[in-house]
């Protein structure tokens, strides 16, 4: 699952089984789940 760090804005792959939730670049502990940027619009006729 992909997350990104709220501090350094880098993308992180979290491995829950190893050392828990933490940014591997800066050590920040607040990570946000990355959302797909593709928005689908359904137009009703
Ligand atoms: Zn970070």
Automatic annotation (TrEMBL):
It is found in: Cytoplasm. GO terms for molecular function: DNA binding; DNA-directed RNA polymerase activity; zinc ion binding. Signal peptide: none annotated. Binds 1 zinc ion. Its main location: cytoplasm. Keywords: Cytoplasm, DNA-directed RNA polymerase, Metal-binding, Nucleotidyltransferase, Transcription, Transferase, Zinc. Its cofactor is Zn(2+). Its EC number is 2.7.7.6. InterPro entries: RNAP_P/RPABC4, RPABC4/Spt4, Rpo12. It catalyses: RNA(n) + a ribonucleoside 5'-triphosphate = RNA(n+1) + diphosphate. Belongs to the archaeal Rpo12/eukaryotic RPC10 RNA polymerase subunit family. NCBIfam families: PRK00398.1-3. This is DNA-directed RNA polymerase subunit Rpo12. It comes from Methanolapillus ohkumae.
